[in-house]
């Protein structure tokens, strides 16, 4: 009862009822349902909630929340440092992030206002009224003109064509640029004016909003002469918001979904947050440093009370306790002291690390888009970055999982061969020639097909009934649309020609269909379009009209599509085409065995195959078919299941007509790219929906499989036990077989069985293979394989590449998703992390950009922790000399500006421009990628080395300055001695210079900007300190630093101490680098040596003897002789011509020795 009265909210019931033009029932009990308005809201904040919401989101980050707590502690208790030291950096970080997010949201508000304020025309009171898009309500009749976008999801009521059809393009939704035909039901198609539509008594019942762009279930009920006529509604009746009207003057439609309930808005789903391995390591390091902080604070608190156990230090004569202090709780005092030490040492946690990392990722991502090597001139597409959070993850990829069609191949189909009635034909020089014949032997008297367009209409060729029926089936069983250069939108778009008009162009959502229709056109059977209810073809110039009765749409489960037609003779025909596995089991006549053999032969050649069949219906059979289809299509509940049952009932007892073979060419440099990835230590898996033979053939041609590779198969498994036994056999064979490389082929059915309970064994077999090919894969199976791989015990980093909507789930599941800007729409691109125009660009994206991003951010993270250890450790050591009184070593301004100003820019510039080797070297030597694999530069060993180095440098800073000033040494010309602020400033000065020069030592690629920020940061520190300590600032409560810096640098001993301490800190690091570089060099370091000496062409040698021995540089020889390790025979190498290699990359990529003849 409540539903009838309209009380149910929009999403409480499974369906919604929309009254066209809002003509509600006249009885007094009906209350209209409330639907969403038509405003699009992509913004995140409003003026009122921006501050609280943004602050809440920012303080959910652990580091920000930690510094907030520290700041509050400084406000509540007596701490040794001013609250400004924590508050100002925190305020800076929060403000910068808020400004960035606020600006981005303002842009979203601006875009929303433009969309919501766009003018539209709606039918009100029998006339057209202009209003704004946001004012459209569910039930309004909207008029849309040619080349305009639809402002809401509309059910098409009528168009300027009598047939009620219109053409649209959904490029902005899924990237498909082909024209799609949508149609209105006959009862509303005649209402072509606003006045007629105003008088229309009808309602739409449909499903509640859902995100699937290609699914719509509904029915339209029209009242005519007190009679209700019910018509089914499907995707072909729904015009989606964001799509554009083409080749049609105007249409009228009723709004059924508005605003944020439109399918376009429901697809505005935020991508799942992906975290890189570097970010996870960074959080681990942060926890370790938090432990160090707690340890230092606890140790200092305990030592303070141990020291104060002596009464002379507990209450010295110059600092007597008050009565309140004497009577206060010891536990509260301990907690207060612990918090005070926590505040004193809190700068060991680098708050500015997060801001610097975000800026580095954001700014660094522009380099991908600016890279001209990733620009595809033919399509005018450049590389696109959808998320900058995963830049460094491009340098850690271990597995690439790629689609085949459109990713490895061009997705540009060319008809090559076909099988008709058991006879195989191939296209040679514009003619269709039977197998075994050549073009020269084919004369005019041949009874076989000729397809040269100039001969088609000059001579009427004799065709057998089977051949003619096959060509007609191919030219009629499709969803191809036709575009003409001079289309006026009134339906007079077909030129009066013989069917081969030069102005006619085919558009199809599937490149296979377009290739086949174009092929039949060359053979003389030309599809000329759809007029009204008829599909028209010209068979060698003779016009034939077939009435289109029903279209049985393609779906991934059936893997076929069909059309029901009425031939000119009145016979009801079903034409169907699809994969051989979905057609042959239902065929009962025709050359089944020969066709099956031909299909396998086509697949072995790498051709994409489709099987074509037909069925004839008697009048009684067709009536039953029509009834079942009508019932299924008008059902509001379980429509998909009922349609599947009806389709299965229709598509059986088929007569096999033949098969087609279409070639999909490999993209340029696919083989070279796959070889480069393999040499880089990356395994490539191909996941495709194609049949096994086609997929294997393409894998061999693109270098994914090698001819010498041992190919293993897990296919056509019938049961769980059979699949398990086969997996065990394969695992045993891999262990026992001495063949170096194995390849594995898996089909979709066997994969489903393997994943039921043998995931571990299946992954063990897969990982033992060099290459894996999964064929006949459903989209969700692709995602399942990716998930299974990335959650395996080794937790490898995965990258998925695809170009179509069926690859979206795989792309979203992988650690890094790459979308190919292909011909299967832009859904893959829109849901990817990065998008490129061609598969060949993947090599540079990983080997160059990934390598550089990783080494930059790895150094950035560890350097930040290093310089903060250098910063705070002297503060901790100072407590041993001030009786743990919590006296600060540095001035508050220095505490505040150390991470913000004095040391921030050099590391930021380093993280944007650093290159260990030139990009062309990285691309030509893929094995260099192995040096950074498995997060090697952020391993715990490397992190501890940086940390220990930080502690060591801090000890040098503190005790070097202490030795200079201890025992009351006077360093001033007037005999005065330095105080504690002078000592702290000296430590701080040495520290700023040392950590800056340390980064300079790490820099390999110097630009003018590196020089500017490196030396400029040191100069800025000196200039700032002169001004800060040389002027009495009126707004400062106390100014302990007045004249301190000037007096400090007036002493020659101080300058000498600075130089000695800095050199003492950095020389051990230099020596370590030299030793490691010559005794245990990495491939990258060897490439640097060769890069620096252009006269040497060998990869890992300084020069070559004629005998093939490598001579070290004199430094390396001296070091190895000193250590007793030098052995010329140890490093001799030879090269076998049979070994695989990448250009200019021999000696790095082989483990064998190098012969002198190849030097």
From TrEMBL:
Membrane topology: Multi-pass membrane protein
Protein keywords: ATP-binding, Endoplasmic reticulum, Endosome, Golgi apparatus, Lipid transport, Magnesium, Membrane, Metal-binding, Nucleotide-binding, Translocase, Transmembrane, Transmembrane helix, Transport
Top-rank taxon, per record: Eukaryota
Keyword Transmembrane: yes
Pfam families the UniProt entry points to: Cation_ATPase (PF13246), E1-E2_ATPase (PF00122), PhoLip_ATPase_C (PF16212), PhoLip_ATPase_N (PF16209)
Secretion signal, residue range per the UniProt entry: none
Residue ranges of domain P-type ATPase C-terminal in the record: 831-1082
Chain positions recorded as ATP binding sites: 403-405, 513, 554, 577, 608, 688-690, 776, 782, 806-807
E.C. numbers: 7.6.2.1
SUPFAM superfamilies to which the protein is assigned, alphabetical: Calcium ATPase, transduction domain A, Calcium ATPase, transmembrane domain M, HAD-like, Metal cation-transporting ATPase, ATP-binding domain N
Cofactor: Mg(2+)
Top-rank EC class of the record's enzyme: translocase
Chain ranges passing through the membrane: 284-307, 338-357, 893-913, 943-965, 977-1000, 1012-1036, 1048-1067
Active site: 403 (4-aspartylphosphate intermediate)
Record InterPro entries: ATPase_P-typ_cyto_dom_N, ATPase_P-typ_P_site, ATPase_P-typ_TM_dom_sf, ATPase_P-typ_transduc_dom_A_sf, ATPase_P-type_domA, HAD-like_sf, HAD_sf, P-type_ATPase_IV
Gene3D superfamilies in UniProt: Calcium-transporting ATPase, cytoplasmic domain N, Calcium-transporting ATPase, cytoplasmic transduction domain A, HAD superfamily/HAD-like
P-type ATPase A domain: residues covered: 120-180
A single GO BP: phospholipid translocation
Domain P-type ATPase N-terminal: 32-86
Binding locations of Mg(2+): 403, 405, 803, 807
GO molecular function: ATP binding; ATP hydrolysis activity; ATPase-coupled intramembrane lipid transporter activity; magnesium ion binding
Gene Ontology cellular component terms for the protein in this record: early endosome; endoplasmic reticulum; Golgi apparatus; plasma membrane; recycling endosome membrane
PANTHER family per UniProt: PHOSPHOLIPID-TRANSPORTING ATPASE IF, PROBABLE PHOSPHOLIPID-TRANSPORTING ATPASE
Complexes and interactors: Component of a P4-ATPase flippase complex which consists of a catalytic alpha subunit ATP11B and an accessory beta subunit TMEM30A.
Family of the protein in this entry: Belongs to the cation transport ATPase (P-type) (TC 3.A.3) family. Type IV subfamily.
Protein name: Phospholipid-transporting ATPase
Gene that specifies this protein: ATP11B
């Amino acid at each position: 009862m409540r539903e009838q009265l309209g009380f149910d909210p929009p999403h409480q019931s499974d369906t919604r009822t929309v009254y066209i033009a809002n003509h509600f029932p006249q009885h007094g009990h009906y209350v209209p349902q409330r639907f969403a308005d038509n405003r699009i809201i992509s913004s995140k904040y409003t003026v009122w909630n921006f501050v609280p919401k943004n602050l809440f989101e920012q303080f959910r980050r652990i580091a920000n929340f930690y510094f907030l707590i520290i700041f509050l502690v400084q406000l509540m208790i007596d701490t040794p440092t001013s609250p400004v030291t924590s508050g100002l950096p925190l305020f800076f970080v929060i403000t910068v992030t808020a400004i960035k997010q606020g600006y981005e949201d303002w842009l979203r508000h601006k875009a929303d206002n433009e969309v919501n304020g766009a003018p539209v025309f709606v039918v009100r009171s029998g006339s057209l009224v202009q209003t704004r898009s946001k004012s459209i309500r569910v039930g309004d009749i909207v008029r849309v003109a040619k080349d305009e976008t639809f402002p809401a999801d509309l059910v098409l009521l009528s168009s300027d064509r009598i047939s009620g059809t219109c053409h649209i393009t959904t490029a902005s939704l899924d990237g498909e640029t082909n024209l799609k035909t949508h149609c209105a039901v006959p009862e509303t198609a005649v209402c072509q004016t606003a006045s007629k539509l105003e008088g229309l008594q009808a309602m739409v019942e449909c499903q509640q909003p859902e995100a699937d762009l290609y699914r719509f279930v509904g029915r339209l009920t029209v009242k005519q002469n007190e009679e209700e006529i019910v018509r089914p509604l499907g995707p072909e009746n729904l015009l989606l918001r964001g799509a554009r009207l083409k080749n049609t003057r105007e249409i009228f439609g009723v709004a059924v979904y508005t605003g944020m309930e439109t399918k376009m808005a429901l697809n505005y789903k935020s991508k799942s947050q992906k975290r890189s391995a570097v970010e996870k390591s960074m959080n681990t390091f942060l926890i370790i440093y938090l432990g160090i902080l707690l340890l230092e604070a606890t140790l200092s608190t305990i030592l303070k009370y141990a020291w104060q156990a002596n009464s002379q230090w507990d209450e010295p004569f110059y600092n007597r306790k008050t009565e309140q202090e004497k009577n206060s709780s010891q536990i509260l005092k301990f907690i207060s002291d612990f918090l005070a030490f926590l505040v004193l040492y809190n700068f060991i946690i680098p708050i500015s690390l997060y801001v610097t990392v975000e800026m580095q990722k954001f700014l660094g991502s522009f380099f991908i888009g600016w890279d001209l090597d990733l620009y595809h001139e033919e399509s005018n597409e450049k590389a696109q970055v959808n998320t900058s959070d995963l830049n460094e993850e491009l340098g850690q990829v271990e597995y690439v999982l790629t689609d085949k069609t459109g990713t490895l191949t061009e997705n540009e189909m060319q008809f090559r061969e076909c099988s008709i009635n058991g006879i195989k034909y191939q296209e040679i020089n514009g003619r269709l020639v039977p197998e075994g014949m050549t073009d020269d032997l084919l004369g005019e008297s041949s009874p076989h097909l000729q397809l040269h367009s100039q001969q088609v209409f000059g001579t009427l060729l004799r065709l057998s009934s089977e051949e003619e029926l096959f060509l007609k089936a191919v030219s009629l069983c499709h969803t191809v649309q036709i575009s003409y250069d001079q289309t006026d939108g009134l339906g007079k778009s077909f030129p009066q020609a013989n069917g081969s008009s030069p102005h006619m162009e085919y558009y199809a959502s599937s490149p296979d269909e377009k290739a086949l229709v174009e092929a039949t056109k060359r053979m003389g059977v030309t599809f000329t379009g759809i007029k009204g209810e008829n599909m028209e073809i010209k068979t060698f110039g003779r016009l034939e009209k077939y009435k289109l009765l029903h279209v049985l749409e393609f779906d991934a489960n059936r893997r076929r599509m069909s059309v029901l037609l009425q031939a000119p003779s009145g016979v009801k025909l079903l034409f169907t085409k699809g994969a051989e596995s979905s057609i042959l089991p239902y065929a009962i006549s025709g050359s089944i065995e020969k066709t099956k053999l031909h299909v396998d032969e086509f697949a072995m050649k790498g051709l994409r195959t489709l099987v074509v069949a037909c069925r004839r219906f008697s009048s009684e059979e067709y009536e039953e078919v029509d009834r079942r289809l009508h019932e299924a299509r008008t059902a509001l509940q379980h429509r998909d299941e009922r349609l599947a049952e009806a389709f299965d009932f229709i598509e059986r007892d088929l007569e096999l007509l033949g098969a087609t073979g279409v070639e999909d060419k490999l993209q340029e440099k696919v083989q070279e790219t796959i070889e480069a990835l393999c040499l880089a230590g990356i395994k490539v898996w191909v996941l495709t929906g194609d049949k096994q033979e086609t997929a294997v053939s393409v894998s061999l041609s693109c270098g994914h499989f090698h001819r010498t590779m041992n190919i293993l198969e897990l296919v056509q498994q019938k049961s769980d036990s059979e699949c398990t036994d086969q997996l065990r056999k394969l695992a045993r064979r891999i262990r026992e077989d001495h063949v170096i490389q194995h390849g594995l082929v898996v089909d979709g059915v066997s994969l489903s069985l393997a994943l039921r309970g043998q995931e571990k064994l299946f992954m063990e077999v897969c990982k033992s293979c060099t290459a894996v090919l999964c064929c006949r894969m459903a989209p969700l199976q692709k995602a399942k394989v990716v998930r299974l791989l990335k959650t395996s015990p080794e937790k490898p980093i995965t990258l998925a590449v695809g170009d179509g909507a069926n690859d979206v789930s795989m792309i979203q599941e992988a650690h890094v998703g790459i979308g190919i800007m292909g011909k299967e729409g832009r859904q893959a691109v829109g849901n990817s992390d990065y998008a490129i125009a061609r598969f060949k660009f993947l090599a540079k994206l990983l080997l160059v950009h990934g390598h550089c991003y990783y080494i930059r951010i790895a150094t950035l993270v560890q350097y930040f922790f290093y310089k903060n250890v250098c910063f705070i450790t002297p503060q901790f050591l100072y407590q041993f000399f001030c009786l743990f009184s919590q006296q600060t070593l540095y001035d508050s301004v220095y505490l505040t500006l150390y991470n913000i100003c004095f040391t921030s820019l050099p590391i930021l510039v380093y993280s944007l421009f650093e290159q260990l080797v030139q990009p062309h070297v990285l691309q030509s030597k893929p094995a260099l990628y192995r040096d950074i694999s498995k997060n090697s530069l952020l391993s715990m060993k490397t992190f501890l080395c940086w940390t220990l180095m930080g502690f060591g440098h801090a000890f040098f800073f503190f005790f070097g300055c202490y030795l200079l000033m201890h025992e009351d040494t006077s360093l001033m010309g007037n005999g005065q001695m330095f105080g504690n602020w002078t000592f702290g400033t000296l430590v701080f000065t040495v520290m700023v210079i040392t950590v800056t020069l340390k980064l300079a030592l790490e820099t390999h690629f110097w630009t003018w900007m590196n020089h500017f920020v490196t030396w400029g940061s040191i100069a800025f520190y000196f200039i700032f300190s002169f001004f800060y300590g040389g002027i009495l600032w009126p707004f400062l409560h106390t100014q302990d630093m007045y004249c301190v810096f000037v007096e400090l640098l007036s002493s020659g001993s101080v300058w000498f101490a600075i130089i000695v301490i800095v050199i003492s800190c950095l020389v051990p690091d230099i020596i370590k680098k030299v030793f490691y570089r010559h005794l245990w060099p990495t491939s990258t370091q060897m490439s640097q040596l060769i890069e620096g000496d252009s006269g040497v062409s060998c990869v890992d040698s300084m020069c070559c003897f004629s005998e093939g021995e490598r001579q070290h540089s004199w430094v390396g020889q001296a070091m190895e002789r000193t250590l007793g390790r030098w052995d010329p025979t140890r490093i001799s190498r030879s090269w076998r011509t049979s070994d695989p290699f990448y250009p200019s990359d021999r000696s790095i990529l082989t483990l064998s020795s190098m012969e002198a003849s190849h030097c």
